[in-house]
């Protein structure tokens, strides 16, 4: 071991080369040029034909497939030829796309693999006028070298205002009273509401929209608490908001406003179990994503009086069925996904996506990119297993965090025999950031936006390189991820210096977890992992294996690291399937097991 150095260089400082695949240049279609044949004399004085192409119109072509605000269209026209063709069938879109360098859509157009294949490689950027990109095949876009950008910030205020509008309308029964009066009734006693002043609002997700809702709710005299694993406590305090755990937010709230993304971790996060932990008579607003609520469970909670009212702008399936019990429930106020539907927001989204598309066509890197640009194949080939290791270490580390303080400081250590100039860690750092952020966020993190995304969330990532003696044939010996100033769900993951620590290596091309806290383990990072801290005694492997075997959960790897014989040990178990809650409970009830945690990769 010879030296160690620290770095936190920005990914966004990289400049594309003139031949970058993000540029439309040198992709000039023949329809945009004048082609002529001229004759020239060679050294033998014979005339030979020569093809000459005179560029008549060097502008790229942008297809706008759904209605876009006029300001955005005008911005595009200053740089490109713009074809506004709406309501295209999938076949018509595939036919047109081969003549286009960029495509802009909203949520109604499906940009499928067939679209990218039909483009013949000419399509360089897809712009989504809005936040969600569920309608764009990101894998196909990346495979075809096409950048995908969105417009994540322009509708923030509109969504927050709609959330507050639903909050007030729900509390005062505005929609129900309006419908009643229009049928000729005058039922003042039936529609007595509740006041907002002095009530506790739990904002679930303290990002752009959530923080704006909190500011407005404070102005209405509400006490605001929030839950968000990544929100810095100082930013929340500046707004007058207390960050709390998920369970505390559920238990204390009179009103709950949802602003979390739809991810595997948040899918149906409000369900029968979580509703049972809420105050009786709680009121719920959702202007985020429909899938974060188990809609059948919400109907049961409404019927039982656990939830007094709900106001919903989004649904699991949109539009919901006409006979939906949830939509038709008398204590539910609904709107047809209007969160971003203000004239100002629509213009803002149009400008934001147009600027991103124009920048991408110029070959510039975009902070709103949601997929990775092309990386040289030789770099990917060499770093591929370490890229996978980096992301999975990030995912493991963040799942070990508990409490409401949020992740603020992450240190990444690389041990390598290569000199710093011979090891570019930008991609590895981006993948660690991806692993830390994506499990609880709708943001797609890549080489382009990793540092930008981390900075937005108050997440500081520093890097240290340990220079090893030996052959530099392999790019890395190990990667270590440490998260400081947080509590852990698994106390054994805390190192001697007080940080959550996980460490991994690549063995035979497969990423392995080799250290948790101070305990040495060796388990392949495939499927998912159960970590158990136990008293080191005979039969423990058999007991845990039997519980998993009874549920037909396949164990792929098992490793035990111990402090000393018959003392404490950490058992790392790789499983192919997710065990049931009952099975995990049974593992925790084994007398020698002191703590355990299930980590999903």
Report what the structure shows.
The protein is α/β, with parallel strands linked by helices and 601 residues long. The chain is built from 18 helices and 27 strands. Strands 1-18-17-19-21-22-23 form a seven-stranded mixed β-sheet, with helices on one face. Strands 11-10-9-12-13-14-15 form a seven-stranded parallel β-sheet, with helices on both faces. A five-stranded parallel β-sheet has the order 5-4-6-7-8. α4 links the parallel β7 (125-128) and β8. It starts with a strand and ends with a strand.
Please write out the topology.
Elements: E1 3-7, E2 33-41, E3 47-55, E4 61-64, H1 70-77, E5 81-84, H2 90-96, E6 102-105, H3 113-118, E7 125-128, H4 138-143, E8 147-150, H5 156-171, H6 174-182, E9 200-204, H7 208-219, E10 223-227, H8 233-239, E11 242-243, H9 246-252, E12 255-258, H10 272-275, E13 282-286, H11 295-304, E14 307-312, H12 325-328, E15 332-334, H13 343-361, H14 377-399, E16 401-402, E17 409-416, H15 426-437, H16 450-456, E18 460-467, E19 478-484, E20 487-488, E21 500-507, E22 510-516, E23 519-524, E24 528-535, H17 540-550, E25 555-562, E26 568-575, H18 581-588, E27 593-600
Parallel strand pairs: 4-5, 4-6, 6-7, 7-8, 9-10, 9-12, 10-11, 12-13, 13-14, 14-15, 17-18
Antiparallel strand pairs: 1-18, 2-3, 16-20, 17-19, 19-21, 21-22, 22-23, 24-26, 24-27, 25-26
Helix pairs in contact: 1-13, 5-7, 14-15
Region (Disordered): 1-23
Catalytic activity: (2R)-3-phosphoglycerate + NAD(+) = 3-phosphooxypyruvate + NADH + H(+)
Subcellular location: Plastid, Chloroplast
